[in-house]
Specification:
Layout: H1 2-7, H2 11-20, H3 23-27, H4 34-47, H5 50-61, H6 79-94, H7 121-127, E1 142-146, E2 153-155, E3 183-185, H8 189-196, H9 199-202, E4 205-210, H10 215-226, E5 235-237, H11 246-249, H12 260-270, E6 306-310, E7 323-325, H13 331-355, H14 361-364, H15 367-372, H16 378-402, H17 415-426, H18 432-437, E8 452-454, H19 471-475, E9 481-483, E10 486-487, E11 490-491, E12 516-517, H20 522-538, H21 558-565, E13 575-581, E14 585-593, E15 601-609, H22 619-632, E16 647-654, H23 656-663, E17 670-674, H24 680-683, E18 705-709, E19 712-715, H25 724-727, E20 730-731, E21 737-739, E22 757-760, E23 766-771, H26 775-787, E24 792-796, H27 805-817, E25 821-824, H28 825-828, H29 834-859, E26 875-879, E27 885-887, H30 899-912, E28 921-926, E29 931-936, E30 942-943, E31 946-948, E32 951-953, E33 957-958, E34 961-963, E35 969-974, E36 977-984, H31 1002-1008, H32 1031-1049, H33 1055-1077, E37 1089-1093, H34 1097-1108, E38 1112-1116, H35 1122-1129, E39 1132-1143, H36 1149-1169, E40 1177-1187, E41 1194-1196, H37 1209-1221, E42 1230-1241, H38 1251-1257, ...
Parallel strand pairs: 1-4, 1-6, 4-5, 6-7, 13-16, 16-26, 17-18, 17-24, 24-25, 28-37, 37-38, 43-46, 45-47
Antiparallel strand pairs: 2-3, 8-9, 10-11, 11-12, 13-14, 14-15, 19-23, 20-21, 22-23, 26-27, 28-29, 29-34, 30-33, 31-32, 35-36, 38-50, 39-42, 40-41, 40-42, 44-45, 46-49, 47-48, 49-50
Helix pairs in contact: 5-6, 8-17, 13-16, 17-20, 23-29, 26-27, 30-35, 31-33, 33-34
Length: 1332
């Protein structure tokens, strides 16, 4: 029962067991700090839950009849068990706490004791030498070996789970992560780090890490302590390098660091071998590998040159004189530093408040001043005095709450400053061991065996190099201190006659019979700290403590609890959140001001599954909840209503409407259309995309039923009349008819060709109303539809683009009846062509209710402020299909069809475009099912008529071409051809390697070629959703396919050639839409830059660029979440458009400009309502123009270089037309079909310098292969297998690093392949790749 019981214990004991094999392994008292062990044990006793108590008494009495643990808790024990339990609880309350049975040694778990070892005679002889100085630090390089936990950082205890059923930590893909404890660097760690890696120090010092912690913990601590400078360490070693046996490795035993290991291993690494840990020194071969070192030292080290920093005196028993023992940086020390830090903050805040004009009540009114104040202001003065008194009382209360009682002077832990001082001393020593043996740590005492009477100088008088003070000089001062044979870290029997003065008289009381470490002597510690400060200042390194408030796991600490409650809060309206909900994953990117570092932003990235009903209802809401938890530090339960006080805006892009259209899962709706046109949308425009297909399957219409409306209007005249302007109806400014129609077909009597009222349409054309709608009959039809369950309508009437009155009347009637969605074609997009306008209306009626339903569910997860639309409330913005942000009122299903891909286009366009060099950019978004391709040349390329899922829609959308070739595209061999797609394996079952029996796909091919490494890929596959990619399943599938291919071709192609053949087909398929966007339109491909993003983009980018002749590739750091990142960069957009139907002539040009001016005013007014005005508003004025007699209109935006430079639309149209078609119709007049103004509300001022500007200033440096995390066998075209292809991790690279292909670069969400001949340079925000 005991073993079973241990496996299910809640709380921190279980957490320790999960990592170290048993509770004994982790909580066995060791040499160092048995007292700390019992203190920590008692802490857990006092803070354990009911389950821990129950576990303890069960352990003690070892009931054989206990039943196993169940999901709801332990089963109730038998009556006899209850009696024993009661006796146990009573005894426990009356006696000191006793460690659980799991913490006590068991006879069945023996541990092999470490052998007792002593320093070698040769080492002792070397240490006996007399210390001698060097002429220069570079004359002899030193080696600094650093411990981590307790020495450089404090690792807080594991955070106690809220519930025993809480899952273990996982990454964004669901992979189980090693449980890491919170890591907090020691004070002055930043300055210490700068000192170690400054050019001056690097000229004489090599630095490495050697920790006895587990490799994953060492990696985490090294990252937290050294950040990017971790790559400059000559080695990073963990527990697997200490020569422990298997049982010792998993037990909490006292370890020893034998310095002969680095002295012998580091030179071996220097001989050209790959930098790995000396695993031969460990007998635990199955343990995880330590983090690999980066550079190798440039000299051979020994006892003469080595210094070990560790918080345990027993770590260096073999080389004691090369060890500087430091005080352990414990949780208690961390809490004191935090207390002091917060007290300083409080004082600074109060001083700041005083500077803003607040005076103390004692100073506010003096007797003289009081006489000068007017009597009528006495009430105001008294109120002010009262406020000041309250403010002062609050300040005093805060000071009393946060300042520990009894301490007059406090300072942060200065141990690392003292270490800098020691390093500054030993850099000039030839023999480090001799220097420490002779008491170098205790001052300049180079004659160890003679008792000296010396006086320690004060801080003000400390020289940079402390000379030896003679006894005669000391005795003449009257203050003496006897120091007897200081040896290494320890001072043996040091009776203090009178304490040394260090700045101010401080009493030092040391036990006469105790052995003291050097840092326990305050004067000595402060002496070296002062030396360290001087060394830092000499190098221009700021001496900053670097303490930051952080959530600690020591929740029982009273002072720390006060600190957490008083942590600086994130300001209101400051968190900016962008969420992109895709088909598989939901990406969330957020930023907010760092409350601890004014002027800096913190960024948060959250990646989660788009659908996970077992854990959350809505992915974006869950992602935002996680962001708020991280930013505020508060625990927010799932499914709770989120408060939006801290949120500035939320930006969303969603594929809800797109998926509904593709899957035909939209809202049932009815179509209302002019009588006689019932089948118009079903007939369509007679286009046949597959002209030779004998089995054409036309997609069904989106609407469910049709109702004809008995109404009719027509236009007066005809467009092919050569004298149309002379024959047209003439109106006055008020719209009244001055003269009727005079062209062909006029009856000679009325105002037009027949009876009916004549009105002027929005486009300026004359409209004849032949029959007005019968609203009573229409109401009956609408009520019948309502009774049948219809709640959504699409209204499409003839010529409503210019005369919308009839549609608006029917729309008002429908809303009055109760229809919740009414899509009037004239209000969605008033453009000529009834078929695409009608299909667009039905699409909007089909999709918008689904979108609104989703958004209602989204808003229900937040408080009411999010939706009220007030200026002081958080904004909610949505990505439109045209790349602009829309507010809730203007967002609809029709405008959201390309909402998801549009964010990625905005992201790559704004981060890759250089306005000075103007290199056009091609965006390559390689996803799981398809690849999206777009082009950016300083302006988004927008199309106004697109076909999606067989539905032709008339709405402005980014020109994004999609091809069915992605990571999930199926690979088949049919009729002698290699095929990649269009079928997709999807996410269920997925490719063969997903362990669900799926077909072969592009992902399988990349896996077989070594372009995906299972160890670095998310382990989310198989039935348990925790298994890695299955290479053998892919191999088996390709071997079957290879037999068929070789039999067909009568060849003997090897497996790599066949697999790569499918990759070549997939690459060519992805190149096809790129050529259509560029070469087919007259653009030279080689002048473009390829911006690759998406999860699979990096695997194909180099080869696709090579096929297209493109030499430059940009991959953004956030390329895997670029659609979410693009939302943060996007601008608010609002546009208005009106039909025109006017000839573009010199006479009409002023009229057209007047219309543009009027529309521009309306657009600016709307943007002002949304909070944008002044310099943050930019407008684009456009005309939709075509040659008379043609059917294709082009939306034209003139540039200053067109014609006379004053909005010359004619010159701009001819330029664009010739670029598109290659010729001009010089004899044709130009017709303006539409007038449009697009307003842009700028959400940022500048994105900083471009990647090309940064590249010009950047100093690059080649990266050695030894810096690679590992090597892997990868197949490349024309080269074959490169078995030792280096694999680099993004986090280990630094700005300016230059890599040569072949190579792989990997992070948590993407893999980038550098083909032979490719060169990659790491920039601030991009990976800049060039091809030969």
């Amino acid at each position: 029962m005991a073993n079973r019981d241990r496996s299910y214990r809640p709380g921190p004991w279980r957490d320790a067991y999960a990592h170290y094999g048993s509770y004994e392994d982790y909580y066995t008292p060791s040499y160092y700090g048995e007292r700390s062990y019992y203190r920590e044990r008692d802490y857990y006793w006092e803070n354990t839950s009911r389950y821990d108590d129950e576990r303890a008494w069960r352990d003690e009495y070892r009931f054989e009849d206990d039943r196993p643990y169940q999901a709801g808790g332990y089963n109730e024990p038998s009556s006899s068990s209850s009696l024993y339990r009661t006796q146990y609880m009573v005894r426990r309350s009356q006696s000191p706490p006793r460690e659980p049975a799991a913490m006590r040694h068991h006879e069945d778990r023996p541990v092999t004791p470490l052998p007792v070892r002593t320093p070698s005679p040769s080492y002792l002889a070397l240490a006996e030498e007399r210390p001698t100085p060097l002429s220069s630090p570079t004359e002899e390089r030193k080696l600094l070996i650093l411990d981590l936990n307790g020495t450089l950082v404090h690792r807080a205890p594991y955070t106690r789970p809220k519930s025993r059923h809480d899952p273990l930590p996982t990454d964004e893909f669901g992979r189980a992560l090693p449980r890491l404890r919170p890591v907090h660097p020691r004070p002055y760690m930043a300055a210490f780090r700068q000192y170690l890696f400054s050019p001056d120090t690097q000229g004489w010092l090599d630095v490495m890490i050697w920790s006895s912690a587990q490799p994953h913990s060492v990696t985490d601590m090294a990252d937290k302590a050294f950040g990017e400078d971790k790559a400059k360490l000559v080695a990073v070693w963990a527990r697997d390098t200490l020569g422990l046996s298997s049982d010792q490795y998993s037990r909490k035993v006292q370890t020893v660091k034998d310095l002969t290991t680095p002295w012998t291993k580091l030179p071996a690494l220097q001989q050209g071998r790959r930098a790995t840990t000396p695993s031969e020194a460990s007998s635990s071969g199955k343990r995880s590998r330590s983090p690999s070192p980066a550079p190798t030292p440039t000299s051979v080290h020994s006892a003469l040159t080595t210094l070990l920093l560790d918080d345990s005196p027993a770590k260096a028993v073999l080389q004691p004189y090369n060890h500087v023992c430091l005080p352990e940086y414990s949780g208690e020390m961390r809490a004191k530093d935090l207390e002091l830090f917060h007290s300083v903050q409080l004082r600074e805040a109060d001083l700041q408040a005083d500077r803003q004009g607040s005076t103390s009540p004692q100073e506010s009114v003096s007797s003289n001043d009081a006489e000068e104040l007017p009597t009528e202001d006495s009430k105001k003065r008294k109120r002010k005095e009262k406020k000041e008194m309250k403010r002062a009382a609050k300040r005093a209360q805060r000071e009393a709450a946060y300042a520990p009682a009894g301490e007059d002077t406090r300072h942060f832990d200065e141990t690392l400053l003292a270490v800098v001082g020691v390093l500054d001393e030993i850099k000039m020593e030839r023999n480090v061991a001799a220097w420490i043996r002779t008491g170098g740590l205790w001052g300049s005492y180079h004659t160890p065996d003679v008792t000296k009477i010396v006086e320690k100088p004060t801080i003000a008088s400390l020289p940079t190099e402390s000379p030896t003070i003679q006894p005669e000089e000391a005795s003449s001062q009257g203050r003496t201190e006897e120091v007897l044979t200081a040896s290494g870290n320890d001072a043996v029997s040091s009776p203090v006659i009178e304490p040394a003065q260090v700045g101010s008289p401080v009493k030092e009381s040391l036990d006469e019979n105790a052995q003291h470490l050097w840092f326990e002597h305050p004067s000595t510690l402060e002496y070296w700290a002062t030396r360290g400060k001087a060394a830092l200042e000499k190098l221009g390194i700021p001496v900053v403590h670097g303490i930051e408030l952080a959530l600690e796991s020591l929740t029982d600490n009273h002072h720390l609890s006060c600190l957490l409650r008083a942590m600086p809060e994130v300001p209101d309206r400051s968190i900016r959140i962008c969420a992109d909900r895709g088909g598989t994953f939901c990406d969330v990117f957020a930023s907010y001001p760092d409350p601890e570092k004014p002027g800096e932003l913190k960024e948060i990235v959250v990646k989660l599954l788009s659908q996970d009903e077992a854990n959350y209802r809505d992915a974006p809401t869950e992602g935002i909840r996680r962001v708020l938890e991280i930013a505020t530090g508060a625990s927010i339960p799932r499914a709770s209503v989120l408060q939006t006080d801290k949120i500035d805006y939320i930006r969303l892009s969603t594929t809800v409407a797109t998926n509904a259209l593709l899957e035909r899962k939209g809202q049932k709706h009815a179509l209302l259309i002019t009588k006689g046109f019932k089948d118009l949308l079903l007939i369509g425009n007679q286009s046949r995309p597959k002209i030779f297909d004998l089995n054409i399957r036309r997609p069904p219409p989106l609407y469910s039923t049709v109702v004809e409306v008995d109404e009719r209007v027509t236009l007066v005249g005809y467009t092919s009349d050569p004298e149309a302007e002379e024959h047209a109806v003439q109106f006055d400014e008020g719209g009244d008819v001055l003269r009727g129609y005079r062209g062909k077909g006029w009856d000679g009597k009325g105002l037009a060709e027949g009876p009916g009222d004549i009105v002027r349409g929005i486009s300026g054309e004359a409209v004849r109303i032949m029959r007005r709608p019968d609203l009573d009959a229409t109401e009956k039809d609408l009520r019948k539809l309502y009774d049948e369950g219809y709640r959504s309508l699409a209204i499409v009437l003839c010529h409503s683009y210019t005369f919308p009155d009839h549609e608006l009347q029917i729309g008002r009637l429908a809303r009055k009846i109760g229809f919740t969605q009414v899509s009037e074609s004239s209000q969605l997009l008033p453009m000529i062509k009834m078929v695409p306008r009608g299909v667009s209306s039905t699409a909007d009626a089909y999709l918008t209710p689904i979108l609104r339903s989703y958004l209602d569910g989204f808003f229900s997860g937040f408080d009411e402020k999010l939706k009220d639309g007030r200026i002081r409330s958080p904004r909610v913005e949505f990505m439109g299909s045209d790349g602009g942000l829309l507010d809730l009122r203007n967002f609809s299903g029709l405008k959201s069809i390309l909402s998801g891909p549009a964010g990625g286009v905005v992201g790559y366009a704004l981060t890759s475009w250089d306005p000075d060099r103007k290199h056009p950019v091609i965006g390559l978004d390689v996803g799981g099912t398809s690849t999206d391709v777009s082009r950016f040349d300083g302006r988004y390329e927008v199309v106004y008529e697109t076909t999606t899922a067989g539905v032709t829609i008339q709405s402005p959308q980014l020109d994004i071409n999609t091809v069915a070739a992605g990571g999930g595209s199926c690979l088949t061999f049919r009729n002698g051809l290699f095929l990649a797609g269009p079928e997709s394996a999807g996410a269920e079952p997925g490719p063969s390697c997903y362990r669900k029996g799926g077909p072969l796909a592009v992902t399988d091919a990349n896996l077989m070629l070594g372009r995906l490494i299972p160890d670095y890929f998310p382990k989310i596959f198989g039935k348990s959703a925790q298994e890695p990619l299955d290479v053998e399943a892919s191999r088996a599938g390709f071997e079957v396919l290879a037999k068929e291919i070789n039999a067909t071709y009568d060849k003997n192609l090897d497996l790599d050639e066949i697999v790569y053949g499918f990759i070549k087909v997939a690459n060519e398929t992805m190149c096809r839409p790129i050529r259509a966007l560029t070469e087919a339109r007259g653009y030279a491909l080689h002048k473009h830059i390829l911006a690759s993003f998406g999860g699979a983009g990096g695997q194909h980018a180099c080869e696709i660029a090579h096929l297209l002749g493109i030499k430059t590739i940009l991959i953004h750091r956030y390329s895997s979440i670029l659609s979410a990142y693009g939302l943060a960069l996007a601008d608010r957009a609002f546009e208005l458009q009106e039909p025109s139907s006017t000839f573009y002539t010199a006479d009409n040009r002023p009229t057209l400009k007047q219309r543009l001016d009027r529309i521009e005013t309306d657009v600016k007014a709307e943007l002002k309502r949304q909070g944008f005005e002044g310099s943050h508003v930019h407008t684009e004025r456009m005309l939709n123009m075509r040659f008379e007699g043609t059917d294709t209109a082009l939306m034209v935006l003139p540039s200053p270089h067109d014609g006379d430079g004053n909005e010359d639309f004619e010159a701009a149209f001819k330029r664009v037309y010739k670029a598109e078609f290659g010729f001009l119709l010089e004899t044709k007049t130009i017709i303006v079909d539409d007038v449009k103004v697009r307003g842009i509300g700028k959400t940022f001022d500048s994105l900083g310098e471009s990647v090309f500007s940064e590249l010009e200033k950047l100093q690059t440096r080649p990266v050695d292969r030894s810096k690679a995390d590992t090597t892997y066998s990868v197949y490349f075209d024309r080269v074959g297998r490169v078995k030792d292809t280096p694999v680099f991790q993004f986090k280990s690279l630094h700005v300016g690093d230059k890599l040569e292909g072949p190579a792989m670069i990997i992070d948590n969400t993407q893999t980038i392949i550098l083909i032979p001949g490719a060169t990659a340079i790491l920039m601030t925000k991009h990976l800049y790749i060039t091809l030969e």
